[in-house]
Structure formats: C-alpha cells, structure tokens
Design goal:
The protein is mostly helical and 272 residues long. Helices cover 62% and strands 0% of the residues.
C-alpha cells in the first residue's frame, strides 16, 4: 500500500485547497473544480504506480480538455496568460488568477513544472506529435518567450488604456485566437526542430513564471550516484534536455523538468 501514498497525498492536497477556496469564497465551483483536478492527477499517479504506460497522457487529457473546453470555451473564461493579466488588473480573484497562482506561480515551489507535463492543454496536443525525444541540440532561442510575455501584457494594458467597451468579449476571442496561434506555432517549431517540446522551451510565456519558482521545487528527480553507471539513457529520452544525473539545483535545464518520468522508466539500474 505504501506505493499508493503519493496518490492519496496528491488528492488530499487538492481536496484541502478545494474546501478552503469553497469556504473562503463561498463558491461551490472551486470545490468541484479542484476535486476534479485532484482526482485526475491522483488517478494518473495511481496508474503510474501500476505501470500503465499512458498514465501521464490520461491526466493531460482529463485536465487539459477540462480547462480548454469547459472553462475556456463553455464558461468563456480566458485561461491563457492574457486572462491572468486581465482579471488581475480588474482586481478580480477569479478562476484565471487562482489557476495561475496555484499552478504557475506558487505551485511550482512544490511540484516544479509539473503543470507542463500533466495539465497544459497546449502540450497535450503537441505530445501527440512524433518527435518525443529531441533530435538536435537545444537552441539559444529562449529569449522569444520574454517577447511573447511582454506582448501579452501590452495587449491587456491596451484594453484598459483604449476605450474598449466590450473587453470581456475581446478576451474570449483572444483565448480562441491565442490558442490557435499557440498550436500553430507549437506544431511548426516541433517540425522544424524535430522536437515536440520546442514550443515549451522557446516560446511559451508562462515559463517566465515557472522557471524561477521551479528552481526551488520540492519535487525533483534525483540520481543515486552509487547506482548510476553513466549510460546516458535517461538524458537521451528527456524531452526537456535536463542534465538528470546532476543533483545540484544549478543542473543544466534543471528548471525545465516536467516530471514526465521518462528518465525514471528508462534507467536500467533504477538509479532515479
């Protein structure tokens, strides 16, 4: 039963957040929302322990589709970074702001970039592409994410500075168009660089929040150097080019680990 304790712990944490937000904000939505996500993530953890090969993909689909289709398209809530800026400037502690606070700003102190590996609806689609293992060395294009980050901020600022009467409607369509652009850019980059996660490495603006917080993440893949035989298999299968065998906080691309566990599954000596 010990192997299932992480699944129970994950569900307990999400349940606690669900109850706290429900009682604090007097809104049943947050109870249902976080219980649903907690159930999906803990189910994925359970299936991983059971050695089901598609455990992570199931979580991606359950959470990613929920946020994209239900929250984004049906509830018309912009869950992209523009939605975060918009509601933040309005002073509204709404779904997008809570989502960013939990998953992308403070949450990474605990689970790093786990969001990217298990819940991102952009990566959910990109992970279906055939380039699961990077086919070429990493490019020095990370600066592009900062450009997109600033552009998203300027876009929302323009809505407040210009006389836009239907800003909420603009934000809804920005969510749709923004996602289409992200998917198009993600697929293009994946094909050009033969790397499913090229978008995550070079263009995703959310990484501006995720990277510094992930540096201090409690959940990390660690290498048992007494077992490691330096075969390099773990690093060859890593979709984010992380130097897995280096246990220091400053390891190469260490803040980009998405906890996909591909390295753990690949290690022949169970050193991870």
């Amino acid at each position: 039963m010990k192997q299932y304790l992480p699944s129970l712990l994950i569900f307990s944490v999400f349940a606690a957040v669900a109850v706290i937000l429900w009682q604090t904000l007097d809104n049943l939505f947050y109870l249902v929302n976080f219980l649903y996500i907690g159930t999906a993530v803990s189910l994925g953890s359970f299936l991983y322990v059971r050695k089901y090969c598609h455990a992570r993909r199931i979580v991606q689909l359950f959470v990613g589709l929920y946020m994209l289709v239900y929250l984004g398209l049906i509830c018309r809530e912009n869950m992209q970074i523009e939605g975060f800026w918009y509601y933040l400037f309005l002073g509204v502690f709404d779904a997008a702001v809570i989502h960013y606070a939990v998953a992308k700003i403070f949450g990474p102190l605990v689970f790093g970039r786990g969001w990217c590996g298990y819940a991102c609806w952009t990566a959910m689609v990109l992970d279906f592409l055939p380039y699961k293992v990077p086919q070429a060395p990493r490019k020095r294009l990370g600066w592009m994410r900062y450009v997109v980050f600033v552009l998203s901020l300027l876009f929302v600022l323009a809505l407040f500075l210009l006389p836009v009467s239907n800003a909420a409607e603009v934000m809804f369509w920005a969510f749709i168009v923004g996602n289409l652009l992200y998917y198009a850019a993600g697929i293009l980059l994946a094909v050009l660089f033969r790397d499913n996660r090229a978008f995550c490495k070079y263009l995703c603006p959310v990484a501006v929040f995720l990277k510094p917080m992930s540096y201090f993440s409690l959940l990390r893949i660690r290498c048992d150097t007494t077992k490691c035989v330096s075969c390099g298999r773990c690093e060859r299968v890593c979709p984010m080019n992380v130097k897995i065998t280096d246990n220091s906080r400053k390891r190469e691309n260490g803040t980009e680990c998405i906890l996909c566990m591909e390295c753990v599954k690949e290690c022949p000596k169970k050193a991870l």
